UniProtKB/TrEMBL annotation:
InterPro entries: Arch_Rpo5/euc_Rpb5, RNA_pol_Rpb5_N, RNA_pol_Rpb5_N_sf, RNA_pol_subH/Rpb5_C, RPB5-like_sf
Protein name as catalogued: DNA-directed RNA polymerases I, II, and III subunit RPABC1
GO MF assignments: DNA binding; DNA-directed RNA polymerase activity; RNA-directed RNA polymerase activity
Domain RNA polymerase subunit H/Rpb5 C-terminal: 135-207
Domain RNA polymerase Rpb5 N-terminal: 5-91
Single Gene Ontology BP annotation: tRNA transcription by RNA polymerase III
Cellular component aspect of the GO annotation: RNA polymerase I complex; RNA polymerase II, core complex; RNA polymerase III complex
Cellular compartments annotated: Nucleus
SUPFAM superfamilies (UniProt xref): Eukaryotic RPB5 N-terminal domain, RPB5-like RNA polymerase subunit
Organism encoding this protein: Nematocida displodere
UniProt entry keywords in alphabetical sequence: DNA-directed RNA polymerase, Nucleus, Transcription
Length: 208
């Protein structure tokens, strides 16, 4: 079973996931997103009694792209094994879903990372650790607003500035904010900063 501290961390982790999915354009129930820790415990009795995290796995539907779905997996063990990847791939394949997030407790072993890399040849699988999701990084006071441009908006920007995308400043795929939004190589962020002295400033970053 989960102790109170682990339950608290899983509750915080789930709250961040709901916020992250909403910010990525997926449909999220306000009731679920605003769940208190007591409501969380009641909603997942097996988590409280047996410690099984599988019940936390969730399927999200994109708000504007009807064929786009994303599955969030919570392995029961501290870290998933190669055989778990096969199970996740089977789940995604049966539902024609190609996007997934795996949320683990502990750092993965080399063989698990190898299995994940192999699966990424056919599926867009992201990896997060629970410790990374205890707080929504975009809510930090020093993190400016990031907005992913559509391909049309990106091309309009490049045409307006008369530059190639390689001339834009860069943001790495490994950047914590980029990972939160799920930005892919070649996409562009509009970054809006606001200060009392300088007012509003806008910058653009290419994901690489």
């Amino acid at each position: 079973m989960c102790d109170q501290e682990e339950l608290r961390k899983l509750w915080l982790c789930q709250k961040t996931i709901y916020q992250m999915m909403k910010d990525r354009g997926y449909t999220v129930s306000e009731t679920d997103a605003e769940m208190s820790i007591e409501e969380f415990k009641k909603a997942y009795p097996s988590l409280v009694t047996t410690g099984s995290k599988h019940a936390l796995s969730m399927l999200f539907q994109h708000s504007s792209e009807t064929k786009r779905q994303l599955f969030v997996f919570f392995p029961d063990s501290a870290y998933f094994k190669a055989k778990d990847i096969k199970l996740y791939i089977s789940t995604l394949g049966k539902q024609n879903i190609y996007n997934g997030i795996i949320v683990c407790k502990d750092t993965l072993k080399a063989h698990s990372l190898k299995a994940l890399d192999e699966a990424r040849k056919d599926y867009d699988l992201e990896l997060f650790y629970i410790r990374e999701l205890l707080f929504n990084i975009t809510k930090h006071k020093d993190v400016p607003r990031h907005t992913l441009l559509t391909e049309e908006e990106k091309q309009h920007l490049l045409k307006e500035r008369k530059v190639g995308e390689n001339k834009l400043r860069k943001i790495l795929t490994s950047d914590v904010v980029n990972r939160y939004y799920g930005g892919k190589r070649g996409q562009v962020f509009r970054i809006t900063r606001q200060s009392e002295t300088a007012g509003i400033s806008i910058d653009y970053r290419l994901v690489e």
